[in-house]
Amino acid sequence: MPSEALRKAIDGQLEAHDRAGAIEVALNAVSTGGVGIVDLYDVLSDILVDLGASWQAGSTEVWQEHLVTSVVRNIVEACAPVVSESLPQPIGRTVILATPPDEFHDLGLRMLADRFALAGWTVHLLGASVPVNQLIDAISELGADAVALSVSTHFSRLTLRPYVEAVKAAQPDLVVWVGGPAFRNEASTWFDEAMLDISSLSSSGSG
Questions:
Q1: CA 35 → CA 164, 202, 205, distances in Å?
Q2: How confident is the model at residue 158 (pLDDT cuts 50, 70, 90)?
Q3: Is residue 139 part of a domain?
Q4: Which of 31, 126, 129, 180 is the most buried (most CB within 10 A)?
Q5: How far apart are CA 34 and CA 142, in angstroms?
Q6: For the CA atoms of 139, 49, 115, 71, what is the dihedral angle to 10 degrees?
Q7: What is the tally of structural domains in the chain?
Q8: Which residues form the domain of 168?
């Protein structure tokens, strides 16, 4: 199933507020439609981007944004068995994924976690609003080679810099990547090497 057709099919279920139907469409596309997990996640990411833009424009109510986001999260979790069955040999690298304090949007990180796993990484998803001292402790305890951080708002992007600086001060050899909706139009204030290019990850789960 082409991405455009999959997007249209999922959008139709979302517009009908049919959670079960949206999950069924996504799982059927992966199991019988020739769609890989990475392809599906690209479609889901586009849905979330458009949803955020619609909310900012005042065209989407908060409850609608929350409902669609929860359905997308359900789809991602429903794909967990497929991801587990598709994992390649480990490449011997470990990544931690988190958001800084007061950043509660972590669905993008949830999908990114699977993409790292499908590229052979050992993945530890800490999720939303992680205090910097707790992240530093986790880096040491889990032996992380890299950390991927996500923020969704302009405010979170501004507060992320001291957060990253504290992590780098404690772990100078650590690779720290940043990304998320807040960087879509404002990435220029960060060094290019800090921006995570997900297209550079192996697409072993793309089908």
A1: 36, 16, 10
A2: confident
A3: yes
A4: 180
A5: 36
A6: 100
A7: 2
A8: 94-200
Task: Report how far apart, in Å, the C-alpha atoms of 148 and of each of 13, 140, 170 are.
Answer: 32, 15, 16
Say whether pTM exceeds 0.85. yes
31 vs 134 pLDDT, higher one? 134
Which candidate, 55, 32, 44, places its Cα nearest to that of 111? 44
d(CA 186, CA 16): 34
Query: Tokens standing for 134?
Result: 């707790």
Three-state SS string across the chain, please? CCHHHHHHHHHHHHHCCCHHHHHHHHHHHHHHCCCCHHHHHHHHHHHHHHHHHHHHCCCCCHHHHHHHHHHHHHHHHHCHHHHHHCCCCCCCCEEEEECCCCCCCCHHHHHHHHHHHHCCCEEEEEECCCCHHHHHHHHHHHCCCEEEEECCCHHHHHHHHHHHHHHHHHCCCCEEEEECHHHCCCHHHCCHHHECCHHHCCCCCCC
Give pLDDT tens digits for 33-46: 789 999 999 999 99
CATH of the domain at 81: 1.10.1240
